[in-house]
Amino acid sequence: MDFSVILRTVGILSLISAALSAIISLSEKVFNNYGTCELDINGGRKVLKVEGGRSLLSTLASEKIYIPSACGGKATCGLCKVQVLEGAGPILPTEEPYLSQQEREKHMRLSCQIKVKGNMKLGIPEELFNIQEFVCEVESLTDMTYDIKRVRMKIPEGQQISFKAGQFMQFYSKPYGKVKEEAFRAYSISSKASEHDHVELLIRLVPGGLVTGYVHTALKEGDKVRLSGPYGDFYLRGNCEELIMIAGGSGLAPIRSLIYDVIEKGLPHKIRFFFGANSRRDLYYVEEFAQIEKDYPQFSFIPCLAFPKPEDEWTGNTGFVTVALDRDVDSGAGKEAYLCGSPGMLDASIKVLKSKGFTDETIFYDKF
Amino acid sequence: MKENPIELKLRQDMTESLLGGDTRPLSEIIESDLAELSAAGLTQRQLAEAMRALTEKGLARQGIETRAGDHTVLVEEYMGRIGCPFKHAVREAKRNTTVTDGKGKTLRWSDLSIHLIEAHGFFQGLGSPYRLEPLELAAFLGLI
Predict the structure, then answer these.
(1) Do B89 and A97 touch (CB under 8 A)?
(2) Would the N or C end of chain B have less CB density within 10 A of its end CB?
(3) CA A114 to CA A107: how far, in whole Å?
(4) How far apart are the C-alpha atoms of B9 and A107, rounded to whole Å?
């Protein structure tokens, strides 16, 4: 084939593809330009003027309204549901799996999946308006066990944190090492609710975990980190005489905060705290809880080791935490249970509690 | 191979760590892995079942190494659950299974990895730290 014909053909094809790109780019500007949209929240309680085109989750976040989400807007956690009374269009295939019939009837939608394309009427729980974003300095990083770090952060000047003991924060990691993306995960607050200028989290290393890997390998004292919160409905109800607290691993975090809350407020509840671990190297805050036991006779700490090592010279409870729970708790009457730990431990403990007469109304745990 | 809009949305929502920089369309990643398996006379379900059996062996002694035939199994559970990137209404426990065979070779998978292989034929992208090479995994599990 003549060389000039090849050149002409390539030239024509390039022109066609450039023209197509221009048409696509222009049509995106024309068709995806939704202009200014009005978000009416809670029947006029708040009215926002926003630029359309982004997800409802990120649009609300840019207006400082933080909807809880554990997956970062990827439609895999189903936590970012809000009520959309008008303006959302039909339910999308990506929302389908997460919406029950009851939720559909209440017009609940996944805010990470629906785009703001026009005016919308929303229903958002009032408490979410109190959620703030913080850029905190890491004041200290402490190894509590071989795989759990305590991250203590200073709340910036001019801000303060107010939360209910038991609630959680979202902690944002930065790109590090080979990880090129920012990610965030939910971690319960372990510090006292009475402390408004600092916040502490207990973060256990998950092998291969994006955010826990960041905390354990890249984060340094003095670094700035982003947090938002507080979130969650895991907090003290206290309509009972005795609180049964159960935790494993970093699940100790919200329980510690709850215990201090009861003590600092001078509440009359008796507290029994069952803590499950494999061996002595997984125990932490033991001296602190022993001191609380001495100072507050209403509190007792029951550590249980499932697989103590000979060198542990362990003389306390052995077996899974459920063994001690089954032995020591006679009935659910006059009691509430507060649990935090791995899904397996939660499931096994809930089974024991229900066999004692606890109900869904007297058992509390985070579902993230 | 061109990605359809649903695939494109799935890819956009996946974390980089699941794809590991693999730029092939999802369907191509999945089809090429399943073709390898099929050529070896195996199915994704067989692999998932063998993986699940080892995880269940280790579950009884969570956090402690357990013998399972020629393998040593360690199952560790963490707080929270993790969703399926293919938008199944599945939220698997954050649970890692670390298995070492008689030759000292170690592989690790999560409950989500088992689901991704069984339900979607997705062994994760080339370069992903979580990727399990189908034939390597099959040999490790004693299936070939």
Answers:
(1) yes
(2) N
(3) 13
(4) 24
Contact state of A278 with B63 under an 8 Å Cβ cutoff: yes
Q: How many CB pairs under 8 A join A and B?
A: 94
Residues A227 and A246 in one domain: no
This complex has an ipTM of 0.75
A175 prior amide bond cis, ω within 30:
no
Q: Which residues on B lie below 8 Å from A307 (Cβ)?
A: 61, 63-64
Q: Name the closest residue on chain B to residue A95, using Cα atoms.
A: B87
Contact with chain B for residue A186, Cβ under 8 A? yes
Residues A160 and A274 in one domain: no
Q: What is the pLDDT of residue A24?
A: 56
Give the pLDDT confidence of B37-90 residue by residue, as tens digits.
Answer: 999 999 999 999 999 999 999 988 888 889 999 999 999 988 878 888 887 878
Q: How far is A269 from chain B (nearest CA, A)?
A: 27
Domain with residue A272: its CATH number is 3.40.50.80
Q: Which amino acid is at B57?
A: K
- In which element (H, E) is residue A231 found? strand A224-231
pTM (global) more than 0.90: no
Q: What is the DSSP string of A51-105?
A: ESSSBHHHHHHHTT-----SSSSSSSS---EEEEEES--SPPTTTGGG--HHHHH
